[in-house]
Amino acid sequence: MRSHRVVPGIAVGILAPALLLATPYAAAAAAPPAVTVPSVSSASSTAEDPDTDDLRVAIARILADPDSGRRVTREANALLDADDPAAMRAWLETGYRIAQGEDDRVAISGLLADPDSGRRVIAEVNALLDADDTDAMRAWLETGYRIAQAEDDRVAIARLLADPTISPALRAAANAALDDNTPEALRHFLEVGRYELV
């Protein structure tokens, strides 16, 4: 495999403005993509082990992910500043998962305070927090949240349709969102579409 070398200072300098704005609540706003962390070995360096530049690039990629939360961002930046290959390797093997787990807990807890969170989202969030399983939390943020939110959105639209004073244009838009039946269409109608027709 060909090794690509990047000057770490340049990569971090380019990515820094976007990273400063990253918050753990961004993870809850949309289904975050899974970040693939390269497999690294803590054994002594061999031809197959990643060199220091590869470790820096792996950490820079994690930093570039807009869904990286505060703890992940803070620890990744500290590792790049320290420039200690052994610490970077150890963090990629175990520390990243721990930091991501804490950021996921914060993101999930934030949904309890969100007024748009419906019954299913709240019930699933409480179950996840009670179980305290980091793998289940990550999986739910990646796929389960979208499904739970879509169900809550369907209920909210059905309640809106039950109002006898609803305008014909709003009724048509609500029915179109239900007919489309995608999480994105339902959310767009509730966040934007219904206000455009008022």
What does this protein look like?
By secondary structure, the protein is an all-alpha fold. It has 2 domains: 8-113, no CATH class; 151-196, no CATH class. The chain has 9 helices and no strands. Helix 3 (52-64) packs antiparallel against helix 4 (70-82). The longest helix has 28 residues, at 85-112. The radius of gyration is 21 Å and the shape is elongated. The N and C termini lie far apart (58 Å). InterPro entries: DUF312_ALF. Keywords: Signal.
Distance between the termini: 58 Å
Order of helices and strands: HHHHHHHHH
Main beta-sheet strand count, sense and barrel state: none
Structural category: mainly alpha
Q: What share of the residues lie within helices?
A: over 70%
Shape type:
elongated
Instruction: Report the radius of gyration as a whole number of Å.
Output: 21 Å
Quick one: how many beta strands?
Answer: 0
Low-confidence stretches: 1-36, 38-48
Provide the number of structural domains.
Answer: 2
Mean pLDDT figure: 78
DSSP summary: helix tally = 9
User: Which percent range describes the beta-strand content?
Assistant: under 5%
Pfam families: ALF
InterPro entries: DUF312_ALF (IPR005506)
Signal peptide: 1-28
Keywords: Signal
Quick summary of this structure?
The protein is mainly alpha-helical and 198 residues long. The protein is 71% helix and 0% strand.
Q: Which key phrases capture this entry?
A:
9 helices, 2 domains, single chain, 198 residues, disordered N terminus, mainly alpha, 0% strand, elongated
Task: Lay out the secondary structure.
Blueprint: H1 8-20, H2 25-29, H3 52-64, H4 70-82, H5 85-112, H6 119-131, H7 134-161, H8 168-180, H9 183-196
Helix pairs in contact: 1-3, 3-4, 3-5, 4-5, 5-6, 5-7, 6-7, 7-8, 7-9, 8-9
